[in-house]
Amino acid sequence: MLTMNLWVSVGLCDGATGTPPELPIAVGVKFDDYRGHSITETQQSCVPICPITVSAQSLDCFHERQQVPLRLAYALTIHKSQ
C-alpha cells in the first residue's frame, strides 16, 4: 500500500494497493555485527536474505504467503532489539 501521493492522475495515491509481480531472489543486507562470509569482497558484512514461505490452516482454509523477513528499523527500544 502506498503511504503518500506519488502520481495521483494515474492512480498512484495514498492508500492505493497492489501486488508485486514476483519477489526478488534475495535482498542484500549489511549487518554491522555480522562476522560470517560476505557475498562480495567489496561489501563486507553483506548477507543475502531470501524470501520464505509461511503456511497456516484455519477451519477449512489453507493460506500460504511468501515474504522477505525484513522490516525497516531506524530506531528500536532495548526490549524490541532482544
Could you give a short description of this structure?
It comes from Pocillopora damicornis. The protein has 82 residues and is mainly beta.
Give a verbal description of the structure:
This is ATP-dependent DNA helicase. Residues 1-18 form the signal peptide. Keywords: Signal. It comes from Pocillopora damicornis. This protein is mainly beta. The protein has one domain. It contains 1 helix and 4 strands. The chain has one helix at 78-81, and strands at 27-30, 46-49, 52-58, 61-67. β3 (52-58) and β4 form a beta hairpin. The two termini are 29 Å apart. The model has no long low-confidence stretch (mean pLDDT 82).
How does the SSE layout of this entry go?
Blueprint (H helix, E strand, L loop, with lengths): L26 E4 L15 E4 L2 E7 L2 E7 L10 H4 L1
Antiparallel strand pairs: 1-2, 3-4
Instruction: Give the strand tally.
Output: 4
What is the ordering of alpha helices and beta strands?
EEEEH
The biggest beta sheet is recorded as: 2 strands, antiparallel
Strand order of the largest sheet: 1-2
Average of pLDDT = 82
Please tell me what the overall shape is: extended
N-to-C CA distance: 29 Å
The number of domains: 1
The SS-based structural class is mainly beta
Query: Using only CA atoms, what is the Rg?
Result: 18 Å
Distinct helical segment count: 1
Low-confidence stretches: none
Which percent band covers the strand fraction? Answer: 25-35%
Percentage of residues assigned to helices = under 10%
Protein name: ATP-dependent DNA helicase
Organism: Pocillopora damicornis
Keywords: Signal
